[in-house]
Amino acid sequence: MKRVDDFRLRFGKQELVPIMIGGMGVDISTSQLALEAARLGGIGHISDAMLPTATDRHYNTKFVSQKQKQYKYNINSNDKSLVKFDLEQVAEASRIHVSHTMNAKKGDGMVFINCMEKLTMNAPRETLRVRMRAAMDAGIDGITLAAGLHLGSFALIEDHPRFRDVKLGIIVSSVRALQLFLRKTARSNRQLDYIVVEGPLAGGHLGFGLDWAKYDLRTITNEVLAYLKAENLDIPVIPAGGIFTGSDAVSFLEEGSAAVQVATRFTVSKECGIPPKVQQEYFRASEDDMEVNQLSPTGYPMRMIKGCPATHSGIRPNCEAFGYVLDANGQCSYIDAYNRELAIATDPKKMIVKDKMCLCTHMRNYDCWTCGHYAYRLKDTSHKLADGSYQILTAEHIFKDYQFSINNEIALPEKIEG
Ligand SMILES: Cc1cc2nc3c(=O)[nH]c(=O)nc-3n(C[C@H](O)[C@H](O)[C@H](O)COP(=O)(O)O)c2cc1C
Prior knowledge:
single chain; alpha/beta; six-stranded parallel sheet; 13 strands; 32% helix; globular; binds flavin mononucleotide
């Protein structure tokens, strides 16, 4: 019986443990988590979602208060089109986070950054461009193009000196999305280094509609593998979404995948950014608590734990400080929903916006409890302690469980009481 450790992900001559921890924004897949994956010989991701906000938290910068001060005059205006990011500050935040992470890297693995196209920041092309280029400047090993089709993303970096040396991959949820990307980027004469195929059981935003349950990861992965074979393309394929045990992973590796991308199991690791109190909510969640809804103003469905604080809030939009979801025209569907409710509210302080959420503020505060479908199985991965709480795991424990387990078993950690 095979274990994940019997396989290797190959990039040229480099061999890695075929486990990649997926990017988790905002500030959930921390440097510490990504560095553990790299130390153990796999691949970890940091996320570039809301990095000016995250660097303020970790590196004592003041990007958010500076932006808020600059645009304070606009707080009561519904028109957010003037609320722009300072591109040099965006680049600086990426450089700080990436260079701190890369300077601390140990071991044979790699650290990639997850760059979401849907993080439009009121200037989609310009901000994506500086985020990717700054990450390359600061020595990132690879960039995973996420949350979008990224048809123009290669063009934004193709004149960068590291364009051909940095690993470049994309997340797709269908062969069609992959075909579009490959067609559009053929001109760059630079192949993808890996393809993450994300199925409907993943956490975060989904590349499916509300009919997500009609699709399954194995079918899409096999379609992608067959397409690449037919086109004579040798690109590592990395399935993601609902791979919960080492045996789940092995079943994909045996069918031709090069590695797996996993995330949900690491939400209850001590290295991940989710605060311990919220991690207990992840442990406690039951299958009935899993929900895919359309609250995210990005327009993509998102999976989260039902009833998390973000789902019953009427918080005032704070685009002057954040504004990461503002589209190219400075619009966000939460602002419209908020203003609609405000116009009819008898008590604005108690008002709830039911159909949309303020993604920036709630993700920043860890009030949007996004997770993969199998989050309800997290309780089976640890010990319930005498006080009723669950024991937080180490990323090393989870990583090694994926790497070495057989028979669908999940190894429990050594119990720590008290
Ligand atoms: C808490 C959480 C946050 C996530 N955030 C992002 C993100 O910011 N960008 C992204 O591309 N994928 C995101 N994902 C998806 C993961 O990177 C990964 O592909 C997927 O969740 C793997 O499935 P699993 O969670 O069932 O292991 C997130 C997943 C989780 C659980």
